Amino acid sequence: MNKTIYEKLYSIKCAKIKLVRDTEGYKYQYATLNQLQEKLQEVFTKEWLFIIHRIEDWNVITRIQCKDDKDTFIESAIPLSQNVWPQDKWSEITYYRRYNLIALLDLETEDDDWEKAQESTWKKAYKGKFDLMDYIQRVKDEDNTDSLEKLYKEFMEEKPSEKQKEWFVKEAGIRKDYLLNNQ
Question: Where does the pLDDT of residue 130 fall: very low under 50, low under 70, confident under 90, or very high at 90 and above?
């Protein structure tokens, strides 16, 4: 019995293809279309699938089609922006081809783990001699405004960066408002 296209796509999902964001452009890292196509080649051959990208009516359309049945396919389309320079248009088309495939196959990239991404973001933004997260948690645990003020003085002795001060003041302000409104 032949597999349905959805069974074939499920097999691809079970192959746990992991993309690595190894290329930088436009101030962010991404997995290239070439990397994606290379990683898909073996499993697509095994499942008798192929990919067609086309541009139609100002849309980038990606189709995953069964080799043995021209009427069996899934598609995704993303509209192109207009009034863009040709070089930027090509980048946009490549971007949409890549993300159409990622969306159709429900693939993950190495940092799709939300908690890992958040942890990484915090570490980059708040690295220093002390643990900002510890101070933020202590702010949330305080039960009176006097304690908050003492904690702020202790925090300032750590010589935090401007970004760290901004986060601390924001969290302390939220906690202070809560304490004042619930006494």
Answer: low
Residue with tokens 């933004």: 125
Task: Dig out the tokens for 73 from the structure.
Answer: 């396919």
Note the helical H segments in 106-157: 114-126, 132-141, 145-157
* Helix axis angle, 33-47 to 5-14, nearest 10°: 120
Q: In this structure, what token pair is assigned to residue 147?
A: 């304690």
User: What does the alpha-carbon distance between residue 60 and residue 6 come to, in Å, rounded to a whole number?
Assistant: 22
Q: Which amino acid is at 10?
A: Y
- Residue 39 has which token pair? 């990683």
Note the pLDDT of residue 11: 85
For residues 153 and 151, give the distance between their C-alpha atoms in angstroms, rounded to a whole number: 5
| pLDDT tens sequence across 114-125 | 444 444 444 444
Average pLDDT over residues 36-55: 87
Give me the DSSP letters along 77-102.
EEEPPSS--HHHHHHHHHHHHHHHHH
Distance CA 152, CA 146 (A): 10
* 172 Cβ contact partners less than 8 Å away, ≥ 6 residues apart: 139, 148, 151, 152
Q: Is residue 12 helix, strand or coil?
A: helix
